[in-house]
Specification:
With about 200 residues, the chain is mainly beta. It is built from three helices and 15 strands. A hairpin with a 2-residue loop joins β10 and β11. The chain is globular and about 45 Å long.
Length: about 200
């Protein structure tokens, strides 16, 4: 399975990162060893002093697809959840400033926690799904898929032009503004439409 991630897909997040708005989806991959399931704790690694959270809607691909038209994209995912694109921001900033690849900042073990998946059919309009992330009871990120630059269906269509999508593949669809640094003993609670799907600790 592949973990496909979309960067800079919310205007305010792009601005807070000091980046220009993208004209097409910004795509990167994470290995399957990044996946962290079942609300297991994430252990802060020793190679970074700035591990940050990025809460995202995650969709699960349910059938084989290549070159999918946007109008048919909804047929290719049947579940969604709330995930965290965990990022070693210091490594990303350093490598980006040097013009080097920054996979090491995104692709380490456990850097893609995902919550419980629920049927996508519970949300007739994938372009208007509210979600949020709380840390220690305080809301730090709150947005709607209506705020996306590229919709879920546009993302599915776009990435399928480059990668054959396979059953079980995950797509992290981008994070809104409000990203910040994780600390030991932080308690993360991720919600979609007030439904808790992610509940994990930072160790």
């Amino acid at each position: 399975m592949k973990i496909i991630c979309i960067g800079l897909n919310y205007r305010k997040h792009a601005l807070e990162m000091g980046r220009d708005l993208p004209s097409e989806p910004v795509v990167f991959l994470k290995p399957d060893s990044s996946l962290l399931k079942n609300n297991k704790p994430f252990f802060l690694p020793g190679f970074s002093s700035m591990i940050q959270y990025e809460a995202e809607i995650v969709v699960k691909i349910c059938r084989l697809g290549k070159g999918i038209d946007v109008k048919y994209a909804r047929r290719y995912y049947d579940e969604l959840s709330l995930g965290i694109d965990i990022t070693a921001r210091d490594i990303q900033n350093r490598n980006s400033a040097s013009g080097l690849p920054w996979e090491l900042s995104k692709c380490f073990d456990g850097a893609a926690p995902v919550g419980t998946f629920i049927p996508a059919d519970e949300f007739p309009d994938s372009g208007n799904i509210d979600f949020s992330l709380e840390i220690n009871g305080k809301v730090v990120q709150k947005a709607s898929t209506a705020d996306m630059i590229f919709s879920i269906d546009q993302i599915v269509s776009y990435v399928s032009g480059f990668f054959t999508l396979k059953t079980g593949d995950l797509i992290f669809t981008g994070t809104p503004s409000g990203v910040g640094t994780l600390c030991r003993n932080d308690h993360l609670t991720g919600r979609i439409c007030d439904r808790v799907l992610l509940d994990m600790m930072i160790k």
